[in-house]
């Protein structure tokens, strides 16, 4: 639009609006709406969010937030009910002064999608609202969220304390990559026993995961956050297995919450993504690292993520119910030595799960008495469950962790993670529970 006067430009924008719901005018309003609604800090602007001005977003319950938080207004005429995918790598600026202000960090306008994009911003506001954090940043994968977050706060000579039981990818990142940069990781059991002995003047970060992949160990969030505060550490938790529907670690004092949104949050096994939620101060540091490393989320993926999140509450509720039924069935099965599900009374952290989670989750694991041979046989016999990596989707999946998340681990490391050769991990989907039980029954015969 070179050479177009401002008034002419406004006229052109206006003429786009009726036929083009994603025209400049409605998009600009959308962005304003998104910032106000998702940010939850400023009052909603009358006239833009008609009819919603008396509502207080922070008071909405989780499933309502999953649908509405972060989204632009859906009130008025020709306003799209779903958020637009802004498929543009770059954004126009109105003047050299605006460009200067952006370069000096005084302006927050969208400039280049690696640094921010309107569609990503809506997803970020939604996720921040779901976790109860000030801000969030979305990434290309869960591992991009974990690696970018850790790289944001460590430098040569620093130390991390991590629970020994974490997702294999996070474990290998700390075991195999960080030593190259002079960063040491000290491991603690998920019970946190003896953790005080691991702190040194170089300790910077506490990293935990709860419940853990794949054997559902739990970490006491309150205890872990208090420990980190006492020693001035940045506390980071991978909340992927619980999703924000079942626990919000920031409430317990955690600084940063990570998700692989590939899993339950997106919920349809069709995207890869990650997110970090926390204070604006920490998120702006992580955003800078992300811009340097480049592991950003694609706007199309953000759209699918938001679509998935809108049904998160109902999906999780159903998955928790089915998982409990499957866990009870498996617990009585003569070929199974142990079922790992925090909802079972036999689970060592059942009391803690009741205390800090709002449900026991969609993930479980079990150990076959016949070991690896039995696990192979079971994996080859399932008809409805799909033998596949990942979790949190509509289709129920099984995987043998020694070949999946916990490949390339020593016997000692596997034992510490509670993974046996005959361990099977189950991601409970949305099928009818009776059909899933029937499939387990026939595969175990
Ligand atoms: C608990 C947990 N955290 C992080 C990740 C990594 O996520 P992504 O595969 O999206 O990189 C996974 C993947 O399985 C996971 O299960």
CATH secondary-structure class of the largest domain: Alpha Beta
Uncertain stretches: 1-56
Order of helices and strands: HHHHHEHEHEEHEHEEHHHEHEHEEHEH
Instruction: Summarize the amount of helix as a percent range.
Output: 25-40%
Q: Strand arrangement, largest sheet?
A: 1-7-6-5-4-2-3
Q: Tally of extended strands?
A: 12
Largest sheet: 7 strands, mixed
Shape from CA axes?
Answer: globular
For the record, give the distance between the C-alpha atoms at the N and C termini, rounded to a whole number: 70 Å
Radius of gyration: 23 Å
The total tally of domains equals 3
User: What is the level-2 CATH architecture name of the largest domain?
Assistant: 3-Layer(aba) Sandwich
Question: Which helices and strands, and how do they pair?
Answer:
Blueprint: H1 6-16, H2 24-39, H3 62-68, H4 96-103, H5 118-131, E1 135-139, H6 142-153, E2 159-163, H7 168-177, E3 184-188, E4 203-209, H8 221-230, E5 234-238, H9 243-246, E6 256-260, E7 274-278, H10 280-293, H11 299-309, H12 312-331, E8 336-340, H13 350-356, E9 363-368, H14 371-381, E10 386-387, E11 397-399, H15 411-417, E12 423-427, H16 433-444
Parallel strand pairs: 2-3, 2-4, 4-5, 5-6, 10-11
Antiparallel strand pairs: 1-7, 6-7, 8-9, 9-12, 11-12
The structure holds pyridoxal-5'-phosphate.
Pyridoxal-5'-phosphate is lined by residues 141-143, 167, 169, 209, 213, 238, 240-241, 260, 262, 272, 274, 405.
Observed structural traits:
single chain; alpha/beta; Aspartate Aminotransferase, domain 1; seven-stranded mixed sheet; 12 strands; 13% strand; binds pyridoxal-5'-phosphate
